[in-house]
Every structure is written in structure tokens, then in C-alpha cells.
Amino acid sequence: MGGNVVFQKTLAADESASVSGTPPLAVVVGRSDATEVLVRGKPFSLEGLARENVARFEVK
């Protein structure tokens, strides 16, 4: 995507969203302590990735 933002939104409690794009995708998740992430349909742990409750990772 060349640094373009593919998805940006503040989600409400119990709201979900799906995002697709061509890897690699740089992902930033706020409120990582209250967020569940699935990558290719499988749970992806944000534990250990978060600093100040913001997780940053790449989906390859």
C-alpha cells in the first residue's frame, strides 16, 4: 500500500471490523488490553507487543 492508511476507526464496545490488504501490513492497535485480534482467522496475541497500551506489529 506504500504507506497509505487502509483502515482507521474507533470501535465501540463489542463492535468488530475486518480489514484486508496486500501484505505486509503495519498494524497499530490502541487499547490493546481490551482488543481481540485475529490474523487469517486465528487469534493473535498482543501481549508483549504493547507499550503504553498501544500494540504495533506487521502482518506479512
TrEMBL record:
Span of domain Cytoskeleton protein RodZ-like C-terminal: 3-58
UniProt protein name: Cytoskeleton protein RodZ-like C-terminal domain-containing protein
Organism expressing this protein natively: Acidovorax lacteus
Taxonomic classification: Bacteria, Pseudomonadati, Pseudomonadota, Betaproteobacteria, Burkholderiales
Superkingdom assignment: Bacteria
InterPro entries per record: RodZ-like_C
